[in-house]
Amino acid sequence: MKKKKGFTLIELVxxxxxxxxxxxxxxGAIIAARRTATATTNRGNAKTIQTAAEALYxxxxxxxxxxxxxxxxxxxxxxxxxxxxxxxxxxPSACDSVTAYAGGGRVTYNATTGxxxxxxxxxxxxxxxxxxxxxxxxxx
Length: 140
Prior knowledge:
Number of strands: 4
Radius of gyration: 24 Å
Order of helices and strands: HEHEEE
Mean pLDDT: 89
Shape: rod-shaped
Low-confidence stretches: none
Helix content: 40-55%
Number of helices: 2
């Protein structure tokens, strides 16, 4: 009997299945890394806004120059603060295309209490992705 050289169809299908599983694992890791990078950038931008706001307070003894808009993006806040304390540079964020969260988050103002809150967002770049706890900074 003559033996045929080569692989059987079953062997080829098994190899392709293994390659597909490995590819899915790699893609999952890349997506997780991008989400983590976006969240880290947004936290860094929140810290930049906080530092600029503290410089504003040291200069004027007030946060009022930050404005009284109920909510503004980090990019808008950086522009406002930059006009008072010098250039405020934010790292490019995956949220830049989302107007409400450009720069990676938003600064809210409560007119009743006079409190500003700096809120970064996670990788979702939406209200449902707003971070909480130690990531949120309150300026009084």
